[in-house]
Design brief:
With 106 residues, this protein is mostly helical. It is built from four helices and no strands. It starts with a helix and ends in a 13-residue tail after the last helix.
Length: 106
């Protein structure tokens, strides 16, 4: 048991000598990089993942706003022109008058 304690003391002494010879700025930089890279909530990988999710959601928001704008324009046109309203109902919802037949061609 005492041999193991002596071995640990020898290793600790060697590490201390090595540590005294290392540039303190280099050591601080390495420790900082290790703290950033380590797995956790604020790691580099998680930040990259969060950025990808954010970009995807912002793109989806832009697309949805564009769709809303197009629907608003179509709604305004339907309110203005009654002929267009009838055409829209016939095409979109397959509405027909009582004496008409509808044939779908795809």
């Amino acid at each position: 048991m005492s041999n193991m304690v002596g071995h640990i003391k020898t290793l600790a002494g060697r590490f201390y000598k090595w540590l005294k010879g290392v540039n303190p700025l280099l050591l601080a930089g390495v420790l900082f990089l290790l703290s950033i890279i380590r797995p956790g909530e604020y790691s580099v990988w998680n930040q990259l993942k969060y950025n990808r999710v954010l970009d995807r959601q912002e793109r989806e928001i832009r697309e949805l706003k564009e769709n809303i704008r197009k629907v608003e324009i179509a709604k305004k046109e339907l309110r203005i022109e009654k002929d267009r309203l009838e055409k829209f109902a016939r095409e979109k919802y397959l509405m027909k008058e009582e004496d008409e037949e509808i044939y779908l061609i795809k």
